[in-house]
Amino acid sequence: MPNPSCPLPGPLEASEDQAIPAMLAMRRIAVVGASNDESRAGNYVVAYLMEHGYEVTPVNPMHPSVLGRLSYRTLAEAPGPLEMVLVFRRPEFCADVARQAVAAGATGIWLQSGIISAEARAVAKEAGIWFVEDRCAMVEVRKNEKLE
Description:
Blueprint (H helix, E strand, L loop, with lengths): L13 H11 L3 E5 L8 H11 L3 E5 L5 E2 L2 E2 L13 E4 L3 H13 L4 E4 L6 H10 L2 E3 L4 H11 L1
Parallel strand pairs: 1-2, 1-5, 5-6, 6-7
Antiparallel strand pairs: 3-4
């Protein structure tokens, strides 16, 4: 039975094929929907990224801190500059998160595995920034490490 927090992704689009390595090279990541619940991808994926040298800024108004890091209520409150915004929110919230990411100066938006939003993609495209959806950042980091 597949894990619902990390479902199998669809095929890569050509733009995502370029966006994934570009975004994996970004070291400053704001994580919208970071969680203190160890069973949630917003926790264990964040922990994995931190263990692999990424500077993670949690963004979640429900948690004052996540994995020992100060958590911010909004992307606007998070210290910049932000490179990538990794999103662990339901699709109906992603367009607003994408607009906030653009306003915060992010250069990439990544919707975690299982999350797809045409409106968020359109926001990123209009802003001219990288965009990935329906991909697990942890899985992609692992794949990238094997290629090195």
